[in-house]
């Protein structure tokens, strides 16, 4: 189904008739069908919508050293009809477009970084466009980027707005290092470094749930370990530092997160496999241990569907007598979900906000 943002764009299809267009982070996999007769490039920073759009790639693997050393991290390309679909953290360097449309991301800092990246990829006289939900802060983002040029509201409907910016200044070249934060964290006497970017979970900070998990996780880690929903690689890099003999894999849906995880590993003189996937879908490897601070969304409704699916699938991704260690807000119903899947589950730590659960497979 078309997202509200795409429904608004559907009222404005004539916009796409001319120019060389790049569309960044569509919030559904169906708007591209409305543009089937136009030659358009789509850039996805989220693997779930990319995989749904191209329909053939269940997951992708990378070596963190390759990702960390490449200027643009990685870029998976798939051509479907007249469309080029790219899964990458960044706009490919050297490419320019007359029009770049960004679906407004949740975080304002992420939006500002995307605008700077897109501005630098515009050809002379090119235009930027943003579509987003009014409650998602589209007005405040328009105010935050007045330095780029004047903005004009093109249309609004379905509680969303579409604005166009005609840059008045020539863009500064986009350099990712200007946006990368490098922080040092310490847990239980062990310190390690973490690289992160706007748009990646807990950018520049150590999440309190993650801290509790790292303080209380089982020390008996050996063999293959999966850091599921790895974000900037905080958990994986800490574990690999403390237990250098483990065989680590990190997985996330976000290209920016995977890029940061690769940078984090390099900062700590480490290397690991990275997987881009939507949950455990398309992941055939089996692991001895899975450790995670999994995603959930609090809004009008709490959405923990990704974690519900992860728990159901995790038993198939574990070796016999393997473990899953999860940290979560105490109010989330994970003990019941874990008990439905695993023969043994117990709470290994708890504070007034978070619990850490350990489940063992059959
Ligand atoms: C709570 S954050 C934890 C990040 C990191 N492990 C930490 O502790 O800082 C959850 C992560 O889940 C990722 N995520 C969200 N949906 C996902 C999905 N469907 N499949 C895999 N990862 C997902 C997000 O990109 C985010 O990095």
Helix fraction?
Answer: 25-40%
Mean pLDDT across every amino acid position? 95
Net shape: globular
Query: Major β-sheet, in short?
Result: 8 strands, mixed
Strand content: 25-35%
CATH superfamily of the largest domain: Vaccinia Virus protein VP39
For the largest beta sheet, what order do the strands appear in spatially?
4-5-2-1-6-7-9-8
Provide the gyration radius in Å.
21 Å
CATH architecture of the largest domain: 3-Layer(aba) Sandwich
Helical run tally? 11
Number of strands: 20
Structure description:
The two termini are 39 Å apart. The chain contains 11 helices and 20 strands. It is an alpha/beta fold and 362 residues long. The chain has 2 domains: 4-45 and 89-165, Vaccinia Virus protein VP39 (Rossmann fold), CATH 3.40.50; 180-360, Vaccinia Virus protein VP39 (Rossmann fold), CATH 3.40.50. The strands form 4 sheets. An 8-stranded mixed beta sheet has the order 4-5-2-1-6-7-9-8, with helices on both faces. The protein has an 8-stranded mixed beta sheet with strand order 3-14-13-12-15-18-20-19, with helices on both faces. A two-stranded antiparallel sheet has the order 10-11. It is globular and about 60 Å long. The mean pLDDT is 95. S-adenosylmethionine binds next to helix 8. Residues 48, 201-202, 207, 210, 229-231, 234-235, 252-254, 257, 278-279, 293, 295, 306 line the site of S-adenosylmethionine (SAM).
């Amino acid at each position: 189904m078309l997202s509200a943002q795409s429904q608004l764009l559907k009222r404005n299809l004539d916009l796409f008739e001319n120019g060389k267009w790049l569309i960044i982070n569509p919030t559904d996999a169906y708007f591209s069908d409305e543009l089937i007769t136009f030659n358009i490039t789509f850039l996805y920073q989220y693997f779930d919508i990319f995989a749904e759009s191209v329909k053939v790639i269940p997951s992708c693997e990378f070596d963190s050293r390759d990702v960390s050393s490449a200027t643009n991290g990685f870029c998976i390309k798939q051509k479907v009809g007249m469309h080029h679909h790219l899964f990458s953290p960044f706009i490919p360097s050297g490419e320019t477009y007359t029009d770049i449309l960004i679906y407004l991301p949740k975080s304002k800092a992420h939006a500002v970084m995307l605008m700077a990246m897109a501005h630098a990829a515009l050809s002379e006289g090119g235009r930027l466009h943003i579509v987003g939900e009014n409650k998602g802060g589209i007005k405040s983002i328009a105010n935050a980027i007045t330095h780029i040029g004047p903005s004009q509201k093109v249309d609004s409907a379905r509680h969303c707005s579409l604005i166009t910016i005609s840059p008045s200044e020539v863009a500064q070249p986009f350099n990712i290092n200007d946006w990368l934060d490098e922080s040092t964290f310490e847990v239980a006497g062990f310190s390690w470094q973490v690289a992160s970017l706007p748009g990646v979970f807990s950018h520049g900070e150590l999440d309190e749930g993650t801290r509790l998990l790292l303080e209380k996780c089982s020390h008996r880690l050996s063999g293959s370990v999966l850091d599921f929903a790895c974000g900037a690689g905080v958990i994986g890099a800490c574990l690999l530092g403390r237990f250098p003999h483990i065989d680590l894999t990190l997985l996330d849906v976000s290209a920016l997160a995977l890029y940061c995880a690769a940078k984090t590993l390099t900062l700590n003189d480490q290397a690991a496999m990275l997987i881009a996937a939507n949950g455990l879908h398309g992941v055939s490897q089996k692991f001895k241990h899975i450790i995670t601070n999994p995603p959930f969304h609090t809004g009008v409704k709490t959405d923990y569907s990704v974690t519900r699916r992860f728990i159901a699938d995790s038993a198939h991704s574990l070796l016999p007598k393997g473990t899953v260690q999860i940290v979560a807000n105490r109010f989330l119903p994970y003990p019941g979900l874990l008990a439905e899947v695993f023969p043994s589950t117990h709470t290994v730590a708890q504070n007034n906000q978070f619990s850490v659960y350990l489940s063992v497979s059959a």
